[in-house]
Amino acid sequence: MTKQSGVKGLAQPALEGVGLEGPPEQVVARLAELAERQPRARSAVAQVLGAMPVQQAAELLARMEAGAASAERREIRRALFRLRQKGITPQTPGRAAGAAEGDQPASPAGAPVWGFLSARDAQGLCLAWLVRPRPGTGGVRRLAGLCSDREGLIEFVFDESNRRELRELRRDLERRYRVRLVEADWTVCDFILCQAYAMTPAGRLAGRDAFLGRRAEFTDLPLRTTIEHPIYDVLGHDRADAQPSVELFKEPEAEALRSVIGDVEPYVERIEQVVQSRLVVSEFLQQERLEAVLSEVARELLGSKRGLLLRRRLEDLAYYLLRDGRPQPAGWAAAAAWQLKAGIPLEQNNMLRTLIRSEVEAALGRRRRDQEARLVLTPAQAREASRTEGRRTG
Q1: Secondary structure of the chain as H, E, C letters
Q2: How would residue 261 be classed by pLDDT, with cut points 50, 70 and 90?
Q3: What pLDDT score does 83 carry?
Q4: pLDDT-wise least confident of 1-15, 109-123, 206-220, 260-274
């Protein structure tokens, strides 16, 4: 039996006259010809290719992406993402993900700039690097910053080395400190550095103003502190059909999300009152009241700045996981970020409710253990209590 392309039913007006049935390599060839002949049909071509789980489709998408822009590029990246979920990755270098050093987009200043990024830790710290070759020397220049999403640019360094030393530095970071750097779009790394610089208090960072001079050696873009996070370009802006999953917390990098919740002790007493209430004897009603209190806690905890911080960490986490070859958890993180961005009620975000509930329950457990510890006497305390009681009765 002849292998079919698997895209039957996806035809669009832009694809009229193009046969979508038959061996995949023939269908891809016809789509490639259409994309070359009719540029306006490229978005439709990308949608069809994203539904074809074959290597030829991924290769064509990667080639199309190299010259794409705007909405067309977003459609191509979504198609590539769908193929990556099925384990199909293009070998042809592209700009969206997995590009080799020499294939990174060039900066406005001329020579290519490469980006490297780590995940954020529980304190909200990450490393962001800009790397650029030194013409005619075979060496590279590096601008590296330790960035906090709470405190700004903690420190930065500018140095020169060769590519072998740069690779060894990355390996050393992973071996000694368990910090893994992935290749990233340099504009994303630049944004993280700029945002951290902008929120750093004047006078706190030694040589703070030197950062701008060093950055100018990599790009002549103006200092940027706002950006539409690129994860939405890659995975699509409309995440209404996607649902975050608590499975995300199996990824070690997701630990950075817990610290955003912060101190939940003020809410523990409120939870205890519900659990210990003698007025609510029905287990069903008690659970209902508990859920209502948790919803109120979630709204308070994730309101204003804390919710924005959590959304940014989710976006950064999604981007990092995608660049590290983990598309499924990246999709979960992006979906949770999108729900926060779109203002969808937290009652509909089971992943974040689970996160908040686990933090509150952990605090409740700590309080109960402290209370039990106070009721348990050590042997020395018991003897002293016995002697005291004996003196009273004697």
Answers
A1: CCCCCCCCCCCCHHHCCCCCCCCHHHHHHHHHHHHHHCHHHHHHHHHHHCCCCCHHHHHHHHHHHCCCCHHHHHHHHHHHHHHHHCCCCCCCCCCCCCCCHHHCCECCCCCECEEEECCCCCCCEEEEEEEEECCCCCEEEEEEEEEECCCEEEEEEEEEEEHHHHHHHHHHHHHHHCCCCEEECHHHHHHHHHHHHHCCCCCCCCCCCHHHHHHCCCCCCCCCCCCCCCHHHHHCCCCCCCCCCHHHHHCHHHHHHHHHHCCCHHHHHHHHHHHHCCCCCCHHHHHHHHHHHHHHHHHHHCCHHHHHHHHHHHHHHHHHHHHCCCHHHHHHHHHHHHHHHCCCCHHHCHHHHHHHHHHHHHHHHHHHHHHHHHHCCCHHHHHHHHHHHHHHHC
A2: confident
A3: 84
A4: 1-15
Indicate the pLDDT class of residue 16, thresholds 50, 70 and 90: low
Strand partners, 114: 131
Highest mean pLDDT among 65-74, 110-119, 192-201, 277-286: 192-201
